[in-house]
Amino acid sequence: MRFESPGKLYLCGEYAVLRPGSFAIASPTKRKLWVEAQESEEGSLSSSLFPAPLPFAWQGGAFISPIAPEKCFALFAVRVLEGFCRREAGKDLKLEIKIGSGLEEGGKKLGFGSSAALCCALARAITCLYGVHLSEAEMLKLAILAHFSWQGSGSGGDVAASLLGPVFYASFDSEWLSRHLSFEAVFKNWPGLFAEKLSLPPLSSLALWTGKPASTASLIRGVKPGRKFVERSDDLCLIAKDGALKGEADLVKRAIRLSRYNLESFAKREGIPLENREVRRAIEIAEALGAAAKTSGAGGGDCALALGSKGECRRLSCAWKAAGFAVFDDVLDLKREK
Prior knowledge:
CATH topology of the largest domain: Ribosomal Protein S5, domain 2
Mean pLDDT: 91
Shape: globular
Distance between the termini: 22 Å
CATH class of the largest domain: Alpha Beta
Order of helices and strands: EEEEEHEEEHHHEHEEHHHHEEHE
CATH architecture of the largest domain: 2-Layer Sandwich
Number of domains: 2
Radius of gyration: 20 Å
Helix content: 40-55%
């Protein structure tokens, strides 16, 4: 069986969403990651990034593999998710799991949230094979639980966009989750957590990649967004949401532009390398052509996002390619899933 999950890009709300109850808007990408899973005689995990399939098994309730799961994110996620399903279903399966990805180029992440997408695809695959039935909210919590357990931080907004589609999202209390980091958390109320599906206006979208992956975990570690920055960010997310609900593309573009300036000011105060020289130049090109552009996610220089009319994005795509950037045309899926 094959299970697909898209990547994500943030339209607004980065960093502020780390504060419990604060907002972000994120959209899935049309590029996806997929998991093929089936019952087998032996458990194994394979990927084009691995030199050979990794065998794994459960012995006496312990997860056994030649590589410690703490050194391999995919193996770690499988351990968490299968551990949950073994407990819920009361049975032990042997699974052959294969991972493929359109969220990487040449073995390097594109900055589209591949780890969150992998958690979502694995959660869908493993719960299906074990016959564990979860509500949409419980599936979201399970996927976040696997992701957060590895990273020890994050808002879960990337997981929500990968699982639900375009989403207006408010983050959970990470300190609360750290204290309740167990399978029972899937069935509890998470303080602050909120996810509402959205449909964005008919905008065209572009993303670029500089070829230099950034580490989200290292960028957000220890960051505590201040009140003024968060309040401004929340206001801009509400403007973007209003634009989405009214179908007014200009409101969404305005919120994206102003989010860039709010983030830039915050990043300078915190010493976060949000925009490198290449990304700043790309954003300036976009603005000159009428599109709204900004970094997406934690920043660090790996990718940028632009939204605009078809004509604006067509001209911008040519300009970015002429400047030597790797460009992804029509990158976002802005329609709400039913």
